[in-house]
Amino acid sequence: MCYSFAVPSNGLLSELPINFQNDGLSWDQLRLDQEWEKSSSKEEIKHVLGLRGQPRSSQFRVVEPGQRAYPRYFAPGIVCDEGKNWLRPLRYSIRPSNSAWDLSTKYSLYNARLDRLLEAKTWRPLIGHRHGILPFTSFFEWVERKGKKTQIQFIPEGRSLMWAPILWDYWTSPGKEVGHFSCTLITDDPAPEVEAAGHDRSPIFLDADYMEAWLDAESGSAEGWQEFLKGHRETVAYRHSLAA
């Protein structure tokens, strides 16, 4: 899986090899959600968001450029919606549109295994319908070193920016108080350097020439997209170090 990732600067986002527009309305909605949260009691937040327990921290945390995004944090991503590519704030952990409860991070809804896209009831409705791209500069994984869990940072060699395919959805509270976009990052068998470092999964680095094809979700079948992601990767090596 991909435990967390580093958000690129706005300047690096402009280097993405696709055209997109900033979705100002989505960023405005997120700010409204934050304002609603600040003015609401913990009990109301729990009820409206469908949390299992009272919130211990903000449910609408936004990552600044250059900082790390963890599960349930909001970070910029590219989604295709109604034929246009939009830069939107996406929560890094999917919240299905029909979900009554917001499940905890222990269910790993921030990562989707490529080999289970057609099996898992959470992913199957999205593959072939709601595709996106998550840009980042590095990613982090937990590995075991000398009997202890250690965080490792993986950085692509010779690349300042990388991107991975995602699935996304939009959830609105039953009373329409809040609504937000969320995503899950698709992972596959690890790159050789990631496996050598001790981890069994890594993000897919999608070939730049096929980004537009992936974003055009309705142009293929779910089965076809699974095969598409197996065969259209960037060839890149990774260096790694202990996370700061």
Structure overview:
It is a single chain. This protein has a single domain (4-138, 161-195, 202-237), classed as hypothetical protein yedk fold (Alpha-Beta Complex), CATH 3.90.1680. It has a five-stranded antiparallel sheet. Strands 4-5-11-10-7 form a five-stranded mixed barrel. The chain has helices at residues 10-13, 24-38, 42-49, 192-197, 211-215, 222-231, and strands at residues 4-6, 21-22, 68-69, 74-81, 84-92, 111-113, 131-136, 138-145, 148-156, 162-172, 179-188, 202-203, 238-242. It is 20% helix and 32% strand. It starts with a strand and ends with a strand.
Q: State the total count of DSSP E strands.
A: 13
Mean pLDDT level? 92
What low-confidence regions span 5 or more consecutive residues with pLDDT below 50? Answer: none
CATH topology: hypothetical protein yedk fold
How far apart the termini lie comes to: 19 Å
CATH architecture level-2 label: Alpha-Beta Complex
Please summarize the sheet with the most strands.
5 strands, antiparallel
| Rg computed from alpha carbons, rounded to a whole number of angstroms | 18 Å
Kindly give the count of domains.
1
Protein name: Abasic site processing protein
EC number: 3.4.-.-
Pfam families: SRAP (PF02586)
Organism: Microbulbifer variabilis
